[in-house]
Write a structure and sequence with these properties.
It is built from 20 helices and 26 strands. The protein is of the alpha/beta class. The chain has three domains: about 230 residues, Glutamine Phosphoribosylpyrophosphate, subunit 1, domain 1, CATH 3.60.20.10; about 190 residues, Rossmann fold, CATH 3.40.50; about 160 residues, Rossmann fold (3-Layer(aba) Sandwich), CATH 3.40.50. The structure holds 6-O-phosphono-alpha-D-glucopyranose.
Length: about 600
């Protein structure tokens, strides 16, 4: 997961390349670089560290109308200056940026070295410029040399290349995302749309096997053999303001506070409280009547949303499991054509999740993806796609997309249950009005939260535990994941009832326990929290104001009294705020936690 940007057009490319890199930094931020074409050939500037550092280190303003840039999340070779992209051949005639993994790079490198090509990095990527140069040296024109080189690569890639003296970019996609942005006389290539949203909202999503040649006259779309193919542009409705940080110190805080809007967008037109109906118009009535079992596959935060969706389905009487996508290849339960496999993925590009999705397809299951990104690989490969409409999420730690995923999975679960049973589940009538009031309930949490004070009070703790039961359990896992991701402190989530089966040994006065109450056997969760409290742990109850836990707990984070299917989502907003403020007190780089990337496109 790296970020690629390329630009061809009139005027200097530098500004749009650097803007693109800043907008893509969520994809990786351990090194960055750019290369621009000017009268004297290709000029490469690259270094380890963030885009900011690259920007500062570019002394003389670089000029050139064509350029490429890259922000890296290391896979082959540590984040050094030499391993930063763009990579070039020895004479800097060819420059390349790449996202993905070239699996046969060792064999290619050996062959190229034997032919006299000298390497200067430890990356798999560096074979690409040398290979292109190899074919240029053999007398091929640049486009054919690029195609020949691409043809020899095995693995996953999104690649953009340029050749000295040409006003052209060459690009190819196989397994890693790449999009084209089109503006009058100006063209962009990027890993993701926010890279160039300031400049254009007209986008073409490339597919695996596509090769494009871009110059100032336009974009030529072909397959690997050079046969023309048709790709149509779409207008994205994300505005640059939405993708920017606005007045907030961090994208994460901005995205937490956007949840009333993103949830309203997620449910708009999809629920009909007056007639107690779920109006998922993406699916014809009866779409899911033959479904016998549902398997969810996902990673990270999306896995917690998947677990949420799976519990909703089980409670609605539909057999369902949530599986970590990266475990699916070794432990997938049996599937048949009555199995629906739902890939939950914010980006739609997570390699582990795509791999599980492909396995499910190969085994004959029906597939569906719940994703945020229209045009993503998951959306294109699954039989059906349901979009969560959360808008761009830039903070590496997922926030607003979790709540939108969980709500959409709640709707989908109820819809699957309705189709199978031939009638809506009995509790739908009470659920839908509560769902419609969720944006307001989240607003209330955001307005009155005591999360900042609680984060400060427990700043010096040794570890942070999160417990919940039923739908509170995935929320406990998510609360702990958020906390560890951005504070680097030790945090764990447990099913409330499990606390006494081992984790209680860890509990001390220096381990606050956040207990989530969703209205599902709360008396048992309260008992579990008290068991921790008796051993000295401070208890933070996340529950409505008139809940019995308020009397018992040391601290209280308030949520509205709502349907148990939704209470966890309000609790989750409180926990997101606790994590945010705790990380802020520790002065952590909240939007870009160390070692993590927003979108992980390697297995
Ligand atoms: C990475 C991110 C996580 C995210 C996970 C799954 O690990 O750091 O925040 O939850 O990928 O991403 P997806 O795009 O599939 O939801």
């Amino acid at each position: 997961m790296c970020g690629i940007i390329g630009r061809v057009g009139d005027g200097n490319a530098l500004e749009s390349l650097l803007t693109g890199l800043e907008n893509l930094e969520y994809r990786g931020y351990d090194s960055a670089g750019i290369a621009v074409q000017n009268g004297s050939g290709i000029n490469v500037q690259k270094r380890s560290g963030k885009v900011e550092e690259l920007k500062e280190s570019i002394g003389e303003p670089l000029r050139g109308e064509v350029g490429i840039g890259h922000t890296r999340w290391s896979t082959h070779g540590p984040p050094t200056d030499a391993n930063a992209h763009p990579h070039t051949d020895e004479s800097e005639d060819v420059a390349v940026v790449h996202n993905g993994i070239i699996e046969n790079y060792a064999a290619l490198r050996e062959r190229l070295v034997a032919n006299g090509y000298a390497f200067s990095s430890e990356t798999d990527t560096e074979v690409i410029p040398h290979l292109i140069q190899y074919y240029l040296d053999a007398g091929l024109d640049s486009e054919t040399a690029f195609r020949q080189a691409i043809d020899e690569l095995e693995g996953n890639y999104a690649i953009t290349a340029m050749v000295s003296g040409e006003h052209v970019l060459y690009a190819a996609r196989q397994g890693s995302p790449l999009v084209v942005g089109i503006e009058d006389g100006e063209y962009f290539l990027a890993s993701d749309v926010p890279a160039f949203l300031e400049y254009t909202d007209s986008v073409v999503y490339l597919e695996d096997g596509d090769v494009v040649v871009v110059d100032e006259d336009g974009v030529e779309f072909t397959d690997l053999d050079g046969n023309p193919i048709t790709r149509t542009s779409e207008t994205v409705d994300w505005d640059p303001e939405q993708a920017g940080k606005g007045a907030y110190d961090h994208f994460m805080l901005k995205e937490i506070t956007e949840q009333p809007t993103s949830l309203a967008q997620a449910i708009e037109g999809r629920i009909d409280p007056t007639n107690s109906r779920i109006a998922l118009s993406d699916f014809e009535p009866g779409t899911f009547e033959e479904i016998d079992t549902v398997q969810f596959v996902a990673c990270g935060t999306s896995y917690h949303a998947a677990l949420y969706g799976s519990l909703i389905l089980n409670q609605a009487g539909v057999r369902s499991t949530a599986l970590l996508a990266n475990e699916y290849s070794v432990s997938a339960p049996p599937t048949d054509d009555d199995t629906l496999v739902i890939a939950v993925t914010q980006s739609g590009e997570t390699a582990d999740t795509l791999s599980a999705l492909r396995q499910a397809t190969a085994e004959g299951a029906r597939t569906l993806t719940v994703t945020n990104v229209v045009g993503s690989t998951a959306a294109r490969e699954a039989d059906d796609a349901l979009f969560i409409r959360a808008g761009p999420e830039i903070g590496v730690a997922a926030t607003k997309t979790f709540s939108s995923q969980a709500v959409i999975l709640t709707l989908l679960g109820q819809r699957i249950a309705s189709d199978r049973q031939g009638e809506p589940p009995a509790d739908l009538e009470s659920l839908l009005p509560e769902l419609a009031s969720m944006p307001g309930a989240i607003d209330d949490v955001l307005d009155d939260s005591d999360a900042a004070a609680i984060a400060e009070r427990y700043e010096d703790s040794q570890a942070y535990f999160f417990i919940g039961r039923g739908l509170g359990y995935p929320v406990a896992l998510e609360g702990a994941l958020k906390f560890k991701e951005i504070t680097y402190e030790h945090a764990e989530g447990f099913a409330s009832g499990e606390l006494k089966h081992g984790p209680l040994a860890l509990v001390t006065p220096a381990t606050p326990v956040f207990a989530i109450f969703t209205g599902e056997e709360d008396e048992k969760t309260l008992k579990n929290a008290e068991e921790a409290q008796t051993r000295g742990a401070p208890v933070v109850a996340v529950c409505p104001a008139d809940h019995p836990a308020v009397e018992v707990a040391d601290e209280h984070l308030e949520i509205a009294d709502t349907d148990p299917d939704l209470a966890g989502l309000l609790a989750n907003v409180q926990l997101q705020l606790v994590s945010y403020h705790a990380a802020d007190l520790l002065d952590r780089p909240i939007d870009k936690p160390r070692n993590l990337a927003k979108s992980v496109t390697v297995e």
